[in-house]
Amino acid sequence: MGRAPRADACRNRDRLLEAASEAFARDGVDASLEKIAKAAGVGIGTLYRHFPNKDVLMEAVYRHNLDQMLADADELLATKPAAEALAEWMQRFVAYVATKKGLAMHLKTVVSADSDLFTSSQERMGDTMRRMVEAGVAEGEIRPDVDPTDVLRALAGVCMTSDMTQSQEQPCRIAQLLMDGLRYGAASASR
């Protein structure tokens, strides 16, 4: 069994992921590895020790961002009423996808077919959506006939509109309409 990574190596990796996430949001898949290393405060050799090539870095950023989105959902569910948590999380998700144009598409072209990247991501997102919808239904804020898979697919469709517009406002408005539909006919709405 190998030993645990040193604390400074973990910090470097985290800084690289944050810098790369910002760079990919700003510059897309053409982001410079040298600029990412500089923004993280490390040398290019350190970047390559953690991520042997840009594709490996992009996959790590994708996983890192997904972990953050799912952690956000848990935090929102713990601190807000379920429907409010879901509405805010959907807005954050749409905004996140709008900043990552091309990242998922690029990964689909370079990640091997047997990789669990998208399968496990889809499962984790589905589980999160299920928990959020079920919590909203239990609180009477979301209609009981809502299928969480349908919500996730509809949200994915909303995200596609961000590829067609330069504005982040339209996808956010559409996500709000989707949320309004989830509330329509809920127990609390009929009181």
**Can you tell me the CATH architecture of the largest domain?**
Orthogonal Bundle
Morphology: elongated
**Number of separate helices:** 9
How would a textbook summarize the main sheet?
A: none
The mean pLDDT is 86
According to DSSP, the number of beta strands is 0
The helix-strand sequence is: HHHHHHHHH
The percent of residues in helical segments reads over 70%
Instruction: Give the termini distance in whole angstroms.
Output: 59 Å
Number of domains: 2
Low-confidence residue ranges: none
The fourth-level CATH homologous superfamily of the largest domain is: Tetracycline Repressor, domain 2
Radius of gyration: 19 Å
Structural class: mainly alpha
Oligomerization: single chain
Question: What's this, in brief?
Answer:
The protein is mostly helical and 191 residues long. 74% of the residues lie in helices and 0% in strands.
Task: Give a structural overview.
By secondary structure, the protein is mostly helical. The chain has two domains: 1-52, Homeodomain-like (Arc Repressor Mutant, subunit A, Orthogonal Bundle), CATH 1.10.10; 54-183, Tetracycline Repressor, domain 2 (Orthogonal Bundle). It is built from nine helices and no strands. The longest helix has 26 residues, at 54-79. It is elongated.
SSE inventory with pairings:
Blueprint: H1 7-27, H2 33-40, H3 44-50, H4 54-79, H5 82-99, H6 103-110, H7 117-138, H8 148-164, H9 169-183
Helix pairs in contact: 1-2, 1-4, 4-5, 4-6, 4-7, 5-7, 5-8, 5-9, 7-8, 8-9
